[in-house]
Amino acid sequence: MTDKKLRKLKRYQLLELLVMQTEENEKLQDQLKELEARYKEKELGISNLGSIAEASLQINGVFDAAQNAADMYLRNAKAQADEIIKAAHLRAKEITVRAESKYSTETLPDSFYADLSDESEND
């Protein structure tokens, strides 16, 4: 409205116009508050996405470290098992040699030595 038209309005008309403008202003203020709240929610959501991505990377690092530790444990366990098996084979051969030296071929049947030679060929 122009200044000329406003000056021609009566007092009650000006008051009605003022009330309408106030109501519109309140509605716009409410809309602004709602939009600001939605914006903050979205901003927080985006911030949380960044935090989730960072947490995911950290968790992946923990899983990688755990996998490496498990792999190392398995390698060490296998190496220890291999050493135990080698020691057991060596001990078995020592026992066999002692048994052979203790008992001569005259006291044991030939089938005993045939069984021993078959077992050593399988190793």
Tally of DSSP helical segments: 3
Query: Cα-atom Rg, whole angstroms?
Result: 47 Å
Distance between the termini: 109 Å
Overall mean pLDDT: 82
- Note the beta-strand portion: under 5%
Total number of β-strand segments? 0
The arrangement of helices and strands along the chain is HHH
Shape: rod-shaped
Q: Which residues sit in consecutive blocks of at least 5 with pLDDT less than 50? A: none
| Estimated helix fraction | over 70%
Q: In terms of structural class, how would the helical and strand content be classed?
A: mainly alpha
The major beta sheet can be summarized as: none
Question: What would your notes on this structure say?
Answer:
This protein is an all-alpha fold and 123 residues long. It contains three helices and no strands.
Describe the SSE topology:
Elements lengths: L2 H6 L2 H92 L7 H13 L1
